[in-house]
Amino acid sequence: MRIQGNVALVTGGGSGLGEATARHLAGLGGKVAILDFDIERAKAVADDIGGIAVQADVSDESAVCAAFDQTVAQLGAAPRSVVNCAGIGTAARIVGRDGKLSIDLFERTVRVNLFGTYNVMSHGARRMAELEPLEDGERGVIVNTSSVAYQDGQLGQSAYAASKGAIAAMCLPAAREFAKLGIRVMSIAPGLFQTPMMEGLPDEVAAGIVANIPFPARLGEPREYALLAEQIISNPFLNGTTIRLDGATRLPPR
Ligand code: NAP
Fold this sequence. Notes:
By secondary structure, this protein is an alpha/beta fold. Helices cover 45% and strands 15% of the residues. It has 10 helices and 7 strands. It has helices at 16-27, 39-49, 61-75, 103-129, 149-152, 158-169, 171-178, 196-199, 203-210, 222-234; strands at residues 7-11, 31-36, 52-55, 81-84, 140-145, 183-190, 242-245. Strands 3-2-1-4-5-6-7 form a 7-stranded parallel β-sheet, with helices on both faces. Helix 1 (16-27) links the parallel strand 1 (7-11) and strand 2. The N and C termini lie far apart (40 Å). The structure holds NADP nicotinamide-adenine-dinucleotide phosphate. Residues 12, 14-18, 36-38, 57-59, 85-89, 112, 116, 145, 147, 190, 192-193, 195-198 line the site of NADP nicotinamide-adenine-dinucleotide phosphate. The site of NADP nicotinamide-adenine-dinucleotide phosphate has 28 residues, from helix 1, helix 4 and helix 8.
């Protein structure tokens, strides 16, 4: 899928991996819509790259629908690529030391990360299906964001790993379903990246994390995620799988 001249929608585009991707796709000539909860940050990025900002909570299906309407109205066409980066990182024991359960956090995590991704993927695919096919019969591509925690979730990551595991698990059936429409579905499972989500960690925790990254022995840079998103959008034979992007990290139990 050509990026130049086509509309791309990036969720969570006001920060971190989404922001880097929005900037990268705009630099390649894409017309970029930045969907974020935080409209001020989304606007700041959009103003910088000549894109548009749309406010929505991805877990709210009708808000996501309205965000796609706004994108079509302002950019003149539905997105041919959708990159789902909106998400939250959470940590809690299933049964806390004081016996407190974390069911409320589990529900919130799954609602934002999984239902949010599903909402955006559903509305994205429905709009792509209405577009004319391009070369190879391709209409569009959806890139979802899982996490290495989907395979090696640490203690306290049950909710997060469940939400990210489901994103990886639905990639193949979604790609199979959308194949007849010429829509590809991929997911990226990032290791540990230098974003605001990670910046809240105490220094010693961050150093411990880096010690577990074989090479390069540092946190990932958001532009490295953006490079993979570019490759997935551009390479028509990438479909139905999850790619780890992690410097060979395997998370330890805790
Ligand atoms: P980030 O810097 O916190 O960016 C996430 C963006 O998504 C923020 O702008 C956030 O807005 C927005 N967002 C959160 N909930 C939303 C909602 N319900 N609706 C719309 N927007 C929402 O995080 P990041 O590190 O770039 O993470 C991006 C994705 O990569 C996430 O799905 C994360 O789980 C995944 N990931 C990150 C890492 C890492 O090491 N950074 C590793 C593996 C996977 P607010 O700030 O207003 O909430």
